[in-house]
UniProtKB/TrEMBL annotation:
GO molecular-function terms, A-Z: exodeoxyribonuclease VII activity; nucleic acid binding
Free-text function comment from the UniProt entry: Bidirectionally degrades single-stranded DNA into large acid-insoluble oligonucleotides, which are then degraded further into small acid-soluble oligonucleotides.
Subunit structure: Heterooligomer composed of large and small subunits.
Enzyme Commission code: 3.1.11.6
Family membership noted in the UniProt record: Belongs to the XseA family.
Protein name (record): Exodeoxyribonuclease 7 large subunit
InterPro entries given in the database record: Exonuc_VII_L, Exonuc_VII_lsu_C, OB-fold_nuc-bd_dom
Gene: xseA
Transmembrane portions of the chain: none
Ranges of biased composition (kind: Low complexity): 1-21
Catalytic reactions of this protein: Exonucleolytic cleavage in either 5'- to 3'- or 3'- to 5'-direction to yield nucleoside 5'-phosphates
Length: 436
């Protein structure tokens, strides 16, 4: 029977047993086993395990040389396992897999004896629907799109040159340094009002909401940048929170999303007035380049100077052309030939007026003579008189004026009153009677 107790004989002490030949279960402080022997023992033990099918959500997917090194998260807890998908097995997978996918995979435990690393090797993997979180976000994305929060027409334009930029980002983060550095390189006088907030974890949404409300209430802030230096979907969940998305949509100040994550866009990217791919990109798109603007101003001034010079030269040439015409060289040459015509027209006008006056004078005299011939005054001038009753009626019949009738007799020069003595004979008028 073999004894596992250490040999205390002199020969044993004189000839120590190599550590590589000591099995881990036979090791002691005086006879330790080697690291490689321990790792090989663990490797042999793990190799006896069989394959297992497991369900989870992909949270990391890194491709290196055709193989994939990733992480799989439990759907209902926080447990995570690392896996390796060799290029040969990956070639057999027809599904297009990425971070956030819910998958069912066949894995076999593997222990790398030389490095002491434990992982799972994937032999098969297929989709099992979207991950729970991704599925929830997609439902929320569809709902917000239906409400019109992603409509391009509601997005506000950014100011050309903001007087003050509000920045929400993590304290002492690379995103903050990138935004400040690139903005100041483009426009050295740019001003920032930075509010630090947690950009992942449970404090992310409440702190960003508080920072957004603070900058929104500041009248000097013209645009707000929410910046983070990317990350995996698990750490970016706060930027898809419905409270944050609706707060950004309701803000009156333009908001720029600079989360820096290309593969799985958070909902903040869709509702923001401008989506920047990185914090550096946000700084470049919010702040104009002073060098470019100076070059543009110089170019515009040059074009304006050229246009003005061309216009003045053109107008001067036209003016000189007009001044060179005979009429403008000697203006009187145009008036002298017209002087004689004017005199002739004036004489002709005077003759025409004189003839008209003479003709109309003769016509007036003829009308005056006709009027005189028809007027009763000429008859009265010849000694006739007109007798009127008291009501103005002209007496044309002697019967109209019986004896005692008061009459008014109109003669050539005035009127006299008379009393009718009745009708008399024309051959023997009554004594003292008046002839009518």
């Amino acid at each position: 029977m073999t004894s596992f107790l250490p040999d205390t004989s002199a020969d044993a002490a004189a000839a120590p047993v190599p550590s590589d030949s000591i099995h881990p279960r036979d090791s002691s402080s005086d006879g330790p086993t080697s690291v490689s022997r321990l790792n090989e023992t663990i490797h042999g033990f793990v190799q006896k395990w069989g394959s297992v099918w497991v369900e989870g959500e992909i949270t990391s997917w890194n491709v290196r040389g055709g193989s994939v090194y990733g992480r799989l998260k439990d759907l209902s807890g926080d447990s995570v396992l690392s896996f390796r998908l060799w290029s040969s097995a990956r070639a057999r997978i027809t599904d297009d897999l990425t971070v956030g996918d819910r998958v069912v995979t066949c894995v076999k435990p593997d222990y790398y004896a030389k490095g002491g690393d434990f992982s799972f090797v994937v032999s098969q993997m297929r989709h099992d629907g979207l991950g729970a979180q991704l599925e929830r976000l997609e439902r929320l994305r569809a709902q917000l799109r239906t409400e019109g929060l992603f409509d391009p027409t509601r997005k506000r334009p950014l100011p050309f040159l903001p007087h003050c930029i509000g920045l929400i980002t993590g304290e002492l983060s690379d995103a903050e340094r990138d935004v400040h550095r690139n903005a100041e390189l483009r426009w050295p006088q740019v001003r920032f009002r930075t509010v630090h907030a947690a950009v992942q974890g449970d404090r992310c949404v409440p702190e960003i909401l508080a920072a957004l409300a603070q900058l929104e209430a500041d009248p000097e802030v013209d645009v707000i940048i929410i910046a983070r230096g990317g990350g995996d979907p698990q750490t970016l969940l706060g930027f898809s929170d419905e409270r944050l998305v609706r707060a950004v949509a309701a803000a009156s100040t333009p908001v720029v999303s600079a989360i820096g994550h290309e593969n799985d866009r958070p909902l903040l990217d869709d509702v923001a007035d401008l989506r920047a791919s990185t914090p550096t990109d946000a700084a470049k798109r919010v702040v104009p380049d002073v060098g470019e603007q100076r070059a543009l101003v110089a170019q515009l001034r040059s074009r304006l100077s050229t246009r003005l010079t061309t216009r003045i030269a053109h107008d001067a040439a036209q003016l000189e052309q007009l001044r060179s015409r005979p009429v403008l060289r000697d203006p009187e040459s145009l008036l002298i030939p017209r002087t004689h015509d004017l005199m002739l027209l004036a004489a002709r006008g005077r003759d025409t007026v004189d003839r008209q006056l003479q003709s109309q004078s003769r016509h007036v005299a003829e009308l005056r003579a006709s009027l005189r011939a028809l007027s009763p005054a000429s008859t009265l001038a010849r000694g006739y008189a007109i007798a009127h009753l008291h009501d103005g009626t002209i007496v044309r019949d002697a019967a109209q004026a019986p004896t005692g009738t008061l009459l008014t007799v109109t003669v050539d020069r005035g009127s006299v009153a008379a009393v009718s003595e009745g009708e008399v004979s024309e051959s023997a008028p009554a004594e003292g009677g008046t002839k009518l």
